[in-house]
Inverse folding.
């Protein structure tokens, strides 16, 4: 490698940029992402990079900047969102949540982990390509979007619908992975490659009203209770996505031969029997494990009745259904009707919100490139694919054809448990080491993916 890169300076610039991004309050609602977007546009202009702003509504800004290579090749998209979740009580913070304080080895503030840290890292990777005037193939795209925390209607979803060409890429790096996960004696870095589908639905049960002092069997509330009880006790058959299979098998292997045996039973779809309890050092809970291997439904809301002595003639309840790859809404609907049992002709099902499963393959060359770069940069460490039970903006770029992976490595100073405690919570912060590591590892992935001649 002839190109000399000053990683320490780039790390410091990233740290400062994160602090400045946090100082621009982009709490969603209302969003106001323009504050951070205008700042980014200025910083890009300072590097001699033009960028374009896209807005469905004023103040809900999205920014895209592109660096075309000198040769044909793959398009790599660096995708992050700039909105952050609200701060319920700033008094509980050690440093004010929009101070961007750099103290005790951390950058503090709302968005430090989700995900202005990654925006700052992506920016540094992007400017590195520009400053070094590299000869590379394809195109590097920097996208910072609005509204991820409230469904992306003003952000990636809208951009993908309105300006698909702006977001279209072969490969994408975004949030969702890069957390160090200690399993037995081994450290793994997670790579998010698949997200469960979502179906929020309202079930309306009809009945006959009457006086509470004269009970009769056509009570909408008791009928709903019967259905809810059956739904809660239903277990969908296992359906194991390739990423989940690899996660369980690798984790089992790291925990020793006894646990590996259990892991192999777990990933066997024909084996539905009761399993021995998970070992104490299991990296995930039994609850999460269950959600990874099958479609699930949780009843979450219910409403019936107007008065103490009136039997309700209708009852509505809400189900939160999360689908694994291979299961469809249609199949879940059929199952629900079966579970509604003798009441199946007395219910209506209405969709509140839904999106499909979103998945990128783990046998893609870009995935392999992430894996090999992690091994080179972090000796002794391995990678492990994960599935999210929630969703990120990956799903919109996957729909446009990109292989998208959630990956930006955090240092081992922050464990998965640390991160989970801080994300969307008080005293959100990221350690400076993680910022330096992120810039270095993502830069190396991008340099290789775009075949940069160094
Ligand atoms: Zn996020």
């Amino acid at each position: 490698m002839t190109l000399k890169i000053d990683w320490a300076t780039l790390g410091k610039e990233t740290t400062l940029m994160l602090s400045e991004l946090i100082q621009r309050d982009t709490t969603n609602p209302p969003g106001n992402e323009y504050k951070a977007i205008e700042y980014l546009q200025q910083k890009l202009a300072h590097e001699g990079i033009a960028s374009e702003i896209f807005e469905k509504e004023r103040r809900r800004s999205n920014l895209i900047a592109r660096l075309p290579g000198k040769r044909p090749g793959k398009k790599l998209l660096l995708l992050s969102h700039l909105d952050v979740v609200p701060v319920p009580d700033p008094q509980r913070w050690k440093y004010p949540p929009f101070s961007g304080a750099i103290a005790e080895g951390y950058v503090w503030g709302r968005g430090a982990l989700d995900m202005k840290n990654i925006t700052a890292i992506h920016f540094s990777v992007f400017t590195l390509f520009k400053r070094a005037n590299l000869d590379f193939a394809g195109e590097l795209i920097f996208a910072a979007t609005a509204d991820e925390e409230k469904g992306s209607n003003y952000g990636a979803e809208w951009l993908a619908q309105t300006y698909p060409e702006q977001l279209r890429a072969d490969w994408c790096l975004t949030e969702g992975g890069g957390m160090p996960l200690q399993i037995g004696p081994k450290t793994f870095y997670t790579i998010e490659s698949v997200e469960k589908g979502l179906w929020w639905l309202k079930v309306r049960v009809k009945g006959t009203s009457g006086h509470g002092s004269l009970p009769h069997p056509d009570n909408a509330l008791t009928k709903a209770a019967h259905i809810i009880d059956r739904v809660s006790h239903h277990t969908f058959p296992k359906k194991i996505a390739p990423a989940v299979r690899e996660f369980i098998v690798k984790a089992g292997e790291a925990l020793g031969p006894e646990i590996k045996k259990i892991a192999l039973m777990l990933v066997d779809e024909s084996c539905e029997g009761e399993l021995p309890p998970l070992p104490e050092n299991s990296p995930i809970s039994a609850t999460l494990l269950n959600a990874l291997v099958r479609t699930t439904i949780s009843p979450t809301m219910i409403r019936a009745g107007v008065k103490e002595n009136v039997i309700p003639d209708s009852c509505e309840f809400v189900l939160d259904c999360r689908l694994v790859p291979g299961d469809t809404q249609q199949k879940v609907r059929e199952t629900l009707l079966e579970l509604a049992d003798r009441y199946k002709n007395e219910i209506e099902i209405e969709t509140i919100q839904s999106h499909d499963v979103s998945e990128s393959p783990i046998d893609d060359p870009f995935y392999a490139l992430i894996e090999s770069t992690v091994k080179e940069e972090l000796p002794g460490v391995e990678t492990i694919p994960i599935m999210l039970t929630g969703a990120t903006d990956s799903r919109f770029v996957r729909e446009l054809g990109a292989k998208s992976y959630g990956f930006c490595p955090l240092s081992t100073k922050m464990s998965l448990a640390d991160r989970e405690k801080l994300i969307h919570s008080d005293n959100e912060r990221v350690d400076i080491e993680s910022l330096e590591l992120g810039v270095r590892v993502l830069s190396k992935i991008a340099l290789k993916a775009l075949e940069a001649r160094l």
About this structure: The chain has two domains: 7-177+386-449, 197-355. The domain at 197-355 is CATH 3.30.70.360 (Alpha-Beta Plaits). The chain has 14 helices and 19 strands.
